Amino acid sequence: MSQPSHSLRQIPVVVLAGFLGSGKTTLLNHLLHRSGGSRIGAVVNDFGAIEIDAMAVAGALGDSTVSLGNSCLCCAVDVSELDLYLERLARPSAGIDVIVIEASGLAEPQELVRMVLASEQPGIVYGGLVEVVDAAEFDDTRVKHPEVDRHLALADLVVVNKLDRVPDAERVLGLVRSLVDRAAVVPATYGRIDPEFLFDCRPSEERIGQLSFDDLHEHGEHGESGGHGHADHLHAAYDSLSFSSEVPLDPRRLMEFLDSRPEGLYRIKGYVDFGAYDVHNRYAVHAVGRFLRFYPEPWGPGDARLTQLVLIGSGIDAPALGKQLEACNSDAPHTADEHGMWGVLRYVQDPEEDLVEPPA
After folding, report:
1. What pTM does this model have?
2. Beta strands in the chain (DSSP E)
3. What is the pLDDT of residues 215-247, one digit of tens each?
């Protein structure tokens, strides 16, 4: 299913955080080389005068790189200044599909998220907080930086990196899962996670002209090893569910489902038909972690009136989630009461407002 195409296309902005040495730059470079044809713009922030992180990714990003350098992003850049960089990357002429803010290892993730949510740039939308954890140093990191527990509680997705370096991987994964608040926890080595977790990859047939980074990477893997590369196994890290219904959904039931969505369910995307509750519009839905937003879109004259949703997560029970969504079907699809949509409309951005807070 294609990504919701609201009248105003909004580019997801992903905040990539984690302490020094956790593997953030490695993960970003992996996404650049495994973008599925999508174009990634990056705001690279490095603490110190020599911008090592920016140097590491600049060759791949070229003009799409915005390096702030010399200070921590969350401390040195106010909202209006960050908006200048986001505006540059969100211009249609740039052709960017997703923006990644790679924070300094000393950054405060909560402040970065607030800056994105408070952005006055209408062309972007919050794409989640990804916290990268060094599994080999996790116990020591918690001793030296006890605030890591708070950071994990704020995250929408946690990547437990360098698991190949620890003898007790399951213990570390279990400990991390005990510290998150419904976030998806994904094991990784060398920062290798499937980009579909974070953004919708363009179909490969859309790529024309010169070889993409994906093509070059694939040739390198097959050429050097004579076999399949690590990307062949990435999908094992997450589960997905596609849901479709010809019966309109009851808005109250859907909101109950969304308010109680389980641990590990990271992304929800698609369209919802609320039937008689709004006969003129379908509702594009964008959810990442605890963040939720609906976008009403007029039905076209030839549109099939369907609900179509895709759910992506780690360790989720897809059949159970499918049954829960089926239970959201309306018992009386042709009738509606005047208050039924109030829960949904809380998450429709008012054109006069710039900030929509994620649900508590």
Report:
1. 0.80
2. 11-17, 40-44, 65-67, 98-102, 124-134, 157-161, 184-187, 239-245, 265-272, 281-288, 291-298, 307-313
3. 333 433 433 333 334 334 444 467 889 999 999
